[in-house]
Amino acid sequence: MAGRKSIGFSFNVQLPREIETTSQGQNIVNSFDYIGNLVSLTRLDNETNAQFKARLWDARVHPGGPDYEGVINGIGREFGFIREKSMTIDIKKDSAGEPIATSPRVDVLANRVVLYSDWRPDGTAVIDREIRTYQLGDTGYYLNDLIAAINESSYFSATIESGIRTNLHSSCLVQGTTDFFIISHGIRADKLTEFDFDTITKSSVNFQEKGIFDTEVTWTPAATGEYKIDYFRGEVISYDTPSGDLGCSFHAAFFPMEVDSLPIQIFTFQDDNFQEELFEKKTLESGEQVNGLPNPEGSEIYHQLFMQTKVFWGK
Q1: 68-83 pLDDT, tens digit each
Q2: 225 and 157: one domain?
Q3: How far is CA 193 from the centre of its chain?
Q4: Which of 38, 234, 255, 259 is deepest in the core (most CB within 10 A)?
Q5: Is this prediction's pTM over 0.85?
Q6: How far apart are the first and last CA of the chain?
Q7: Rounded distance between C-alpha atoms, residue 110 and residue 281, angstroms
Q8: Whether residue 172 sits in one domain with residue 228
Q9: What sign does the dihedral 157-163-167-168 (CA atoms) show?
């Protein structure tokens, strides 16, 4: 629509607990403050050298930026919080050491953890279970309860990191996924190529060199164009020898998955999972469910944002 402008916000920030500070006196400016200026990080009120040093190191390990990771790193650090490894999710294996899941994937989303026993890039997926971790007005699972729920899965297991509180709110978990898309990976001029990644997602490998990789088989390649992929070891064997000039693309899952926590929550309003918390659901005649009017929590959030955001109408 002509003259329409977007509202100047994209995320909501909530702290699950109050920030408490204790007066420790005024620090004298020293070399730590000089280093902080180099990375645009200023000392917090009453912050000790040891605390400031930890935040300086965190700025190197978890840099800020315009994406989700960067925003949550930057905002958390400005409040004096540092991301820490809290939970590890891994795949279960059978007696032969093979993963039980066909094509495993784990997503830690805004309001849930999704465990896929068979995920494919074509949009088809078999979900083992979805574990709700957050709901507006609720603290969600404690971390020990979330880990227990994951361990009930036939395909995945979870452990808590040493020194992490078992009653940490699972809503503090940093969003992430085990899935990575490898745009280009070389293929050796050899019948055997070992990928730099294991746990390759099935039905995701796309070879650029045709004629060599035409027909995927589950047996040892025995004819021109046949090839076999060991998805869990990250290997491809072909009947003919590739040229070595062309590569392939694919999805890979990285396990074990290390999940960080940070006592700050950031939700983008474009996130379908967060929108579930803001709107009442309306069912169309086709049976499709869409967002209806904002629910009480959603109305309150939008009201607060409109109160603090300049909105201009017209051209």
Answers
A1: 888 889 888 888 888 9
A2: no
A3: 29
A4: 259
A5: no
A6: 10
A7: 18
A8: no
A9: negative
